[in-house]
Amino acid sequence: AAAHKTFTPEELAERFPLFSNLTPEQREVLLLHFETRTAQPGDRIIRAGDAPDNVYFISSGEVEVRVADRKIPLTAGDYFGEMALLSGKPRSADVIALDYSKFVTLNQNDFRQFLRRFPEIRQQVAALAAERGEMNEGF
Ligand code: CMP
Question: How far apart are CA 102 and CA 73, in angstroms?
Answer without folding.
Answer: 15
